[in-house]
Design a protein that fits this description.
single chain; mainly alpha
């Protein structure tokens, strides 16, 4: 989303220092990885608790040992 915003700024002849870095795919991949890490850290525990509540007291069988 930021990439498209800065491309629009470039078309309008508005420049920001450092906006050219969004042209690199490796930088965008790094931002996506960091965003997914933050989302996981914030919502991960709550999601696990919701899933545990939905499953209830489901047991796992021991197969053979």
């Amino acid at each position: 989303m930021l990439y498209h915003l800065f491309e629009w700024f470039k078309e309008q002849k508005i420049t920001f220092p450092g906006s050219g870095i969004l042209g690199f795919i490796s930088f965008r991949v790094l931002l996506a990885m960091l965003l997914s890490l933050v989302i996981t850290l914030v919502f991960g525990k709550r999601l696990i608790n919701v899933i545990k509540k939905r499953l209830g007291d489901e047991t796992v069988r021991d197969l053979g040992s």
